[in-house]
Structures are given as structure tokens and as C-alpha cells.
Amino acid sequence: MSHSLNEIEAMSKRAARGAGLSWGLAEEAAKGTRWLSSFGFPGTEMLAGLLTMNDRIPPIDVSPVSLRAEIWHAPARRMSPLIAGAALSDCAVRLLERGRITMENVNFPLLAVPFMGGAALRLGRPVAAEWQGARLATDGKRLCVQGESDAFLTQLADQMVFSAPADMTGQKEPVMRANVSDESWEQLSQFAHRTFAPATEESRLRGAGAGLSDND
């Protein structure tokens, strides 16, 4: 089914929050999902897969242990691309100073790529990410893509290497709408539903209609 980018962002934000992410990270996840979808990638499918995989898992278990380490890794031996990506954006200056930052065992690595845009805008220089035959680079607005499609869609990258500054080669053109699978949309809807407060007798009486009063 085709959805507008606004619909994708709104659904992704509520789903990420329903999955237990903070509102701030949920908002960043939604913007990232929209951004990937705007370049023709299955952002919603990947977000739905990640939220399902990490459901009920404490965020600390899939977060980098140390941002000062040569190689970032997580206690659960697999890392959330959303948490790691947000940390990468915060460490943009360190990335430029080192030239590269390496992460191990990143789930759905493509979901970390939008956070490179924030890092690139902070640095004023393009940032690239490479894993298993895939290479993407962005200056925060444009996206350049090289590699096989299967590599972009992998659910686990053994190593993901970010570098700056980066060459911009293989520019991909954005789209205005995205095709979303019914299954992933339903998965996101189920997570989003968790953000709805359960109805109480008081809320029902305050809702539309006359409640227990009868004005006739």
C-alpha cells in the first residue's frame, strides 16, 4: 500500500514510543524512517522488524558499552541502530578526528544511516557507512548509494564502519510516497496502540454523547 511520507513519520513515531523508546529517540527514529522511505528503501519494514526484535529488551542491553572504545559493542552482542546512530551523531567531532568509528553486530544497519545526516550537517562534511558490500554516503541532504540491494537489507552487520570526510558517488533521487507492506504497517500499528490510554468509566462519561444525563 502507498503511504505519504507524513503518514509514515507519524506512524513510526507512535510505534517507536509504544515499543518503549523515549519520545526524543522515537522522534528521531520516525524522521529516519521517513528519510529512508523517501529514497526508496523499506524503512517501515526495517523499523517494524527492529521493534519486534527488541520488544521488552532493556535499551541498555543493545546500547554501546563505551563511546571512547576503538570498536563499539553492546552487552547483548547486538546493537540497536537507533541508539548507536544517535550516539554517532553526538560523536560527530570525534568521528572527524579519528577518521572512522567501527560498530560490531548492528541490527538492521540501514536504520543507522539517517543519523549520519545529522553528523554530516554538524561537521559540514559528508559521512559514509560501509558494511558487507554496501556503502552509503550523505551530506545531510543528498544520499549516495553503492552496492548490492541484499546488503542494504541485511538484518545484521558483523561490522559497520563510519568514516568522514567521505566522497559522494552514486546519488539516489528522492520520492514523495512509499510503498509499505500491509504486514509491517500492521506491526507498527500494534506498537502504536500501546500509547493509547485504556478507557475508564470516567473517560467514557466525558466522551461524546450525553453520558448518563438525558436532556430530552
From TrEMBL:
A Pfam match: DUF3726
Domain of life: Bacteria
Alphabetical UniProt keywords: Plasmid
Protein's UniProt name: DUF3726 domain-containing protein
Species of the source: Phaeobacter piscinae
